[in-house]
Write a structure and sequence with these properties.
By secondary structure, the chain is α/β, with parallel strands linked by helices. Helices cover 40% and strands 21% of the residues. α4 packs across α8, α6 crosses α7 and α6 crosses α8.
């Protein structure tokens, strides 16, 4: 269980859901603050940055996607909640900086597990970065967390960068979704394989469709030459 000092901001305008999420996270040992609109979420982050945000997409004032855009500089893990199982919403949310998403209705047990996993990942001490990694026309600078394709810089979210780096460390090797969940997201179960798929689609959109190969039923491989 995380330390009692860990702070979670819950941004949800449906009071019953907000209260249930807050109650579960408090039972897990977190300090929880609840706000119900977009402007209030941004103000709360600026005033006292939390360790993690549980953020609904649909909010009064402005939506959760705009909240993500306005707090990107804070580098706070974000678990986004969406009322629709709509891939477009999920991809847009991941593109603006969300680390994970859950579709309503969801299990409070699973939500708590995702929160713990995101915090473990944020706390994880990264290995000493390789100054530069070049694979074909793909350049990855781990020290600066920058990526170039064909000499042009590509802006990735923190999660997209971590996923790409993981695949780039073993080019042409198929990495199972379950292993990616464990080693990139820090999840112990396989309930979030669609999260992996969504992040891969984000990388393809930014870096080109042919960069990452899908091995159906198994996982993904980075298709570049050393």
């Amino acid at each position: 269980m995380e330390s009692i000092e860990r702070r979670v901001l819950v941004v949800e305008d449906e009071r019953a859901i907000a209260d249930a999420v807050a109650a579960r996270l408090r039972a897990e040992g977190f300090l929880v603050q609840v706000v119900g609109d977009g402007p209030g979420a941004v103000a709360a982050v600026r005033q006292t940055p939390p360790d993690l945000i549980v953020l609904d997409v649909m909010l009064p004032g402005f939506d959760g996607l705009e909240v993500c855009r306005r707090i990107q500089d804070q580098r706070i893990p974000v678990l986004m909640l969406t009322a629709r199982d709509d891939e477009t919403d999920q991809l847009v949310g991941l593109a603006v900086g969300a680390d994970d998403y859950m579709v309503k209705p969801f299990s409070m047990r699973v939500l708590a597990a995702r929160v713990h996993a995101l915090l473990r990942r944020a706390d994880r001490v990264a290995p000493a970065p390789v100054p530069g990694l070049r694979l074909g026309d793909l350049e990855i600078n781990q020290a600066e967390r920058r990526v170039l394709r064909g000499g042009v810089e590509v802006h990735l979210t923190p999660t997209e960068f971590d996923l790409l780096t993981h695949l780039a460390g073993r080019p042409r090797t198929v990495v199972p979704r379950e292993r990616l969940l464990s080693e990139v997201w820090g999840w112990a179960d396989t309930s979030g394989t669609r999260t992996v798929d969504s992040h891969v689609k984000g990388l393809r959109r930014k870096l080109g469709a042919g960069l990452i190969r899908t091995v159906h039923g198994v996982g993904y491989a980075l298709e570049v030459d050393r």
